[in-house]
Amino acid sequence: MSHIFPRHTKQLPPVAARGEGCYLYDTSGKQYLDASGGAAVSCLGHGDKTIIEAVKAQLDTLAYAHTGFFTSEPAETLADLLIAHAPGDLDRVYLVSGGSEAMEAALKLARQYFVEKGEPKRGRLIARKQSYHGNTMGALSAGGNEWRRAQFGPLLIDMSHIDPCYEYRLKRDDESLEEYGVRAANLLEEELLRVGPENVMAFAAEPVVGATAGALTAAPGYFKRIREICDQYGILLILDEVMCGMGRTGSLFACEQDGVTPDILCIAKGLGAGYQPIGAMLCSRKIYETIENGSGFFQHGHTYLGHPTAAAAGVAVVSAILGRNLIPRVKTQGAKLMAALEAEFGQHPNVGDIRGRGLFQGVELVADRETKAPFDPARKIAGRIKTAAFEAGLICYPMSGTIDGQSGDHVLLAPPFIISDDQIDELVQKLSGAIETALRA
Ligand code: PLP
To answer: Known PANTHER family for this protein (predicted)?
Structure first.
């Protein structure tokens, strides 16, 4: 009998035995095409010898040193590497163990920044409906995904959730995409004026929404207008690239494509590519200097901050993404995946939208393509797709989400950057079979 506390106590998973390239194998020898990289983690695929060797070499040299006493060479190198490629005046890197920790650090840093600036009233966070920023209580409070929040209210911090930028559901027919982008961003200003900008510390959003919305990209101009509003009212912009960062959308940082630099940027998942648990919070010089010239101490910390072995994996992963020219490959393979999804599902009566950027794509399912009506949640379409796909040897990331009860079911795809043309075909065929099985049930 297992003593593991599994995610689903009534659905015990198979035992994963090994990984190679885009495939995972369980102990019975069954092969799975990892079309979501777990949860947008395994950007380099499985069994990458260069990364494994880098981790082993670091373990041989220095496995761990506490940041209360030391910094380390891999942590310094990783910070230099990230800042060398980060946009704007992002200047400092705080290394943590994953995405939720990165968001917690972001929220606490935003709060401390305003306390040290002498604006202690600024405590409120504005984020978006249907968002996910992590599962620890602070990050969970920031997120707007009702399913994840439901059992834990009242949550921790003063929060507002505005509508996301969601072209498929919320753009009106009488406006251009650009006009919609500005209108969607202006919801932030409306909310700021409603709650009083002097009470707000930050706005948080994912540049491309992953798990909770199936690769929802922002309309052109949306984030530029968001940036303007943040600057006008003196609030910080926190971008959560835990899922969409590290090359996944076709640029090292997703926000580069939206032409904005946040004050705080969170990354994780693809940073360690699954070889080590690691995340990071990057912040601007302005924020760092406020702490440096104030208390000189960020009142935060975890035991595994700046973990040397995790940082060594991060250095090897970022070097591989850049050195192997994988970002152009994300764009070409992403275009092929999009074309294959369009060919397979473009006319499908239950596929309402196919969207995304790079190798971060989503398919939204609907009961009625004309009215965009979602499936009755009781049909559990997303869950059924996940099960049918897994049985067929495909790992993908179906989810159901709600925005005012409307959005229904979607499937997120985030395969390794090394995915081949044949594997794209295999992915789409297996996904198609899984969707048909789920629709028949
Ligand atoms: N932020 C986003 C956008 C995520 O997708 C996730 C995880 O899926 C997190 C934060 C939390 O990251 P982690 O699960 O590493 O704590």
So the answer is: AMINOTRANSFERASE (PTHR43094), AMINOTRANSFERASE CLASS-III (PTHR43094:SF1)
